[in-house]
Amino acid sequence: MRKYLKTGFVIASLMFAGNAFAQNTDPTEAKYRELYKELVETNTTYSSGDCTLAATRMANRLKEAGFEDSELRIFSVPEHPKEGGLVATLKGSDKNKKPILLLAHIDVVEAKREDWTRDPFKLVEENGYFYARGTVNDKAMASIFTDSLIRYKQEKFKPKRTIKMALTCGEETSGSFNGAKYLSQNHKDWIDAEFALNEGAGGSLDKDGNRIMLNVQAGEKVYQDFTIEATNPGGHSSQPVPKNAIYDIADALRNVSKYEFPVMLNDANREYFKRLAKIKGGEIGDAMNAIVANPNDEKANALLSQNKTWHSMLRTTCVATMINGGHALNALPQRVNANVNCRIFPGVSVESVQQALQGAINNSEIKVAIVEPRSIATPTPKLPDYVLKAMEKVAGEIFPNTPVVPVLTTGATDAIYTNAAGIPTYGFSGLFGDYDGNGVHGLNERVRIKSLMDARKTLYTLVKYFGDN
């Protein structure tokens, strides 16, 4: 298959897609809207939601489309009965071809009704947008994947390659039951695949709603928290002394804020800057080319690092996020600690970052500890040429003249678990987001309806292609 695609991408295999794009209406869209509404309006927050209910509802829709019970598996554990998920399988005809996995999380970030303009758990259509919690993250992909499997089944599409889908819970909340982790570590056979498609990257729109580029997540940084702590005997506040745990922590955090990790390059961010240099041009484009040629180029580093996204993409970053200390208003503090959150460049060990923080603080009395459980340090998977070319071809049909750019994501997704399990995972949604971020993780989350339907078209076509090749 790989040799076949490298020698020439067969346009004929995508002819069906071209015909679909020419149509202005899609008779299946109404059913998709019903599915999307049901999923979005099923509360799946950690505090009061039910992922297992959402998974069951999606399984019921798949059964109505003709999926057998043997092709559907709703899973959970007794300790977390409402944090379950769903694994669905559309069986392929060629046992020599490894499956493809469609991975999406169905849990969402908390949302308080009193803070939102609209009810966050009622899908509202207004001025060309859908509003509700989860309209983007990540129920857009979860609904599209489910809808695509339904359409394949109804069309009697028989892929050569088995197509698996895993809808999981726990991605948004640290410490909850994480379905992707559970499957990767306990039931890899349920989801094992040649590669997986996941969230992590989408398209960018400018302030006027014009498409800028479409990203492919080719890697992601590793999330890790550290605790920095200062202790002191304390005493009466009426008799202060120079040694003070609050001041010690303040000095330590000031040193952390000034510390800059070195620039690092891998296949993901190197290709990102190479491609984006052609789009940006000028001084910025020159700086991008310069940093690719020489990561120690201080002038290029200084210019690019003025952009917070590029700054983070080029290195490990650490930032103080919480602080706690003292025990009484009239006493000298005995213990003060702060949380420092790091996003670690792929391939860099957690222990080396701990040592770097300790060195930057430069005070042996301040202790830097790794917050357990520590994150899995996974390498950046190689992005095969045949995968990228397929994405570029399908995107080119739907989003003409829009560059496709691999990216190293500075946030975190469940890909850390599937990558660690040996399933290379790439973020590709085909969903274009507004310049302001669409309220993801914030208030009044929304998605352009056209963007959602375009993403539906994109993923349906791409997955169908991979299933047949």
Structural account:
This protein is of the alpha/beta class and about 475 residues long. Among the domains are: about 250 residues, Zn peptidases (Aminopeptidase); about 40 residues, no CATH class. The chain is built from 16 helices and 19 strands. The strands form five sheets. The protein has a six-stranded mixed sheet. The chain has a four-stranded mixed sheet with strand order 16-9-8-18. A hairpin with a 5-residue loop joins strand 8 and strand 9. Helix 9 packs antiparallel against helix 10 and helix 10 packs across helix 11. The longest helix is centred in the last third of the chain and has 19 residues. It is globular and about 80 Å long. The N and C termini lie close together (about 5 Å). About 40% of the residues are buried.
Give a short overview:
With 469 residues, the protein is α/β, with parallel strands linked by helices. It has helices at 2-6, 15-21, 29-40, 51-64, 139-154, 179-186, 188-191, 245-258, 267-280, 282-293, 298-304, 308-313, 350-361, 385-398, 415-420, 449-467; strands at 72-77, 80-90, 100-105, 124-126, 129-131, 163-168, 195-198, 203-205, 211-220, 222-231, 235-236, 317-325, 331-332, 335-344, 367-370, 404-409, 425-427, 432-433, 446-448. A hairpin with a 5-residue loop joins strand 8 (203-205) and strand 9 (211-220).
